[in-house]
Specification:
Layout (H helix, E strand, L loop, with lengths): L2 H30 L8 H25 L2 H14 L5 E6 L8 E6 L8 E6 L2 E5 L12 E5 L4 E9 L3 E12 L2 E13 L5 E5 L2 E3 L1 H11 L5 E4 L4 E3 L5 H21 L3 H17 L3 H9 L5 E3 L2 E6 L14 E7 L8 E6 L4 E6 L2 E7 L6 E7 L2 E8 L5 E9 L5 E11 L9 E5 L2 E3 L1 H13 L1 E3 L2
Parallel strand pairs: 13-18
Antiparallel strand pairs: 1-2, 1-12, 2-3, 3-4, 5-6, 5-11, 6-7, 7-8, 8-9, 9-10, 13-14, 15-16, 16-17, 17-18, 19-20, 19-25, 20-21, 21-22, 22-23, 23-24
Length: 450
């Protein structure tokens, strides 16, 4: 409801109340003069109706002010008033309490994660830990949907070793409470690693069990790149994002409440489909055996058999069948076809095999890396001296691109080899230390598929 309509309603209600009160005063005045006319039944009802109309109006106004989205928008307006011009917003359901949380990412500090906000006592408050108001890192925020778990990962690199920490938080009474902290320290010279849980050294198996217990690999991620950009006090997209998130959840609830008859019918249909659809690994094996073809996901008219590829010839542009890895974080294996420029990655679904990633020359070398507990597809361009550009994609299913990251370095003056170097992350300039810390983490987990 816009402000003009609100003012008209308030004026109409006020005018009705004034007229009603004037009628009461007239009756009182006549009574005081000795005349005792009885108010008509209609007048009495009108006065009562006018008074009742005014009360719900006030309650409605109070409820509107207390809506979570209005409270969150006030936070964003305060950021704009403070001079912040480059930030993005995402809404999540962290703790399944009917109140959506808001995550704010700032483009001016790309090495940080996001600021988390929730509603408490009809106020939007920032969730903080003892030592930080940011959670996640490098413009990402990782959490367990409706599971009340979110994580922050820190990394430090020296000449001798690399140390990685993961903090597991829960939202309790408006604050972030650290439940567990894991740390791995790897020596570069020996490759030896040591593992810790809450500062106590443990075996690798117990160390890995923490991530499994919290479901780290199944967690969701929101980021600066896929959030809603807020600029020039234009909040329409923020309102739309909040409403759209709510609609998705309402649809999920409606589906969950589907009638038992429909549920039974759908269950039967699912079983029938399962019987007719081949497992992903079987489809990939059929492709490598030459029985079925693959299709390019970007061009459905383009199909090819494995016999169409230059397989195992030993030449520079030949291919070979590689290993199977869950490259799109959906719990099923994809097939790597090793080759020049990183080869290609194949996914199987809906009884078909798809090419969903491929290298394409020196300016687009394909590989993959483990980052923040998930697999990311990495494209690298190092073909020119003094220039490096990288693009990363995280999938949640090969047909669902969930997040992207871009970073790189280049000479300020490309014509001078002595020129200073500029470092960027998602379009924002970063320091050399920030850039190298990020790169060390990305490339430490990189796997080449040449």
């Amino acid at each position: 409801m816009n402000s003009g309509k609100k003012q008209n309603r308030r004026f109409a209600a006020l005018r009705k109340n004034v007229i009603g009160l004037i009628g009461i005063l007239i009756i009182i005045s006549l009574t005081a003069c000795g005349n005792k006319p009885e108010a008509s039944k209609e007048d009495t009802q009108n006065v009562q109706t006018d008074l009742e109309t005014a009360r719900p109006m006030q309650e409605t106004e109070i409820m509107a002010v207390d809506l979570p989205i209005e409270l969150y928008v006030n936070v964003l307006r305060n950021y704009i008033s403070a001079g912040k011009t480059d930030f993005a917003v995402s809404f999540i359901d962290l703790d399944d309490d009917s109140i959506r949380e808001m995550v704010v990412f700032f483009g001016e500090s790309p090495a940080d994660g996001g600021c988390l906000f929730t509603i408490k006592n009809r106020e939007a408050i920032q969730v903080v830990a003892e030592d930080s108001g940011f959670f996640g890192e490098y413009g990402t925020f990782t959490y367990k949907e409706k599971g009340n778990v979110f994580v922050t990962e820190n990394e430090s690199v020296t000449e001798a070793q690399i140390s990685s920490q993961i903090f597991y938080y829960a939202l309790e009474n408006g604050k972030a409470v650290c439940k567990d902290m894991t740390q791995s320290i790897t020596q570069f010279d020996s490759g030896e690693s040591r593992f810790y849980i809450n500062d106590t050294e443990v075996e690798n198996e117990k160390f890995n069990s923490i991530a499994e217990n919290y479901g780290l690999l199944e967690m969701s991620t929101v980021s600066y790149t896929d959030g809603v950009r807020v600029m020039n006090e234009q909040m329409n997209m923020v309102y739309d994002a909040y409403a759209a998130y709510g609609q998705v959840k309402e649809d999920e609830t409606a589906n969950a409440k589907e009638s038992p008859v429909n549920q039974q019918e759908n269950s039967v249909q699912t079983i029938e489909n399962a019987d007719s659809e081949k497992p992903a690994e079987e489809l990939l094996d059929l492709f490598t055996g030459g029985t079925i073809s693959a299709v390019d996901s970007t061009d459905p008219t383009s199909t090819f058999y494995i016999t169409d590829l230059n397989m195992d010839s030993g030449e520079w542009d030949s291919y070979s069948v590689g290993e199977k890895v869950d490259l799109d974080n959906d719990g099923e294996m994809e097939l790597i076809i090793n080759g020049s420029y990183g080869g290609m990655y194949l996914d199987a679904r809906n009884n078909m095999v798809y090419k969903f990633a491929a290298g394409d020359g020196n300016a687009c070398i394909l590989s993959y890396t483990y980052f923040n507990g998930t697999v990311w597809i990495l494209y690298s361009n190092r073909m020119n001296a003094g220039y490096e550009a990288y693009h990363m994609e995280k999938y949640e299913g090969a047909d669902n691109l969930a997040a992207e990251i871009n970073f790189g370095e280049e000479l300020v003056n490309p014509d001078s080899a002595d020129s200073e170097t500029k470092y960027t992350w998602n379009g924002s300039d970063v320091s050399y230390d920030e850039y190298t810390a990020f790169c060390s983490k990305i490339f430490a987990g990189e796997v080449s598929t040449n």
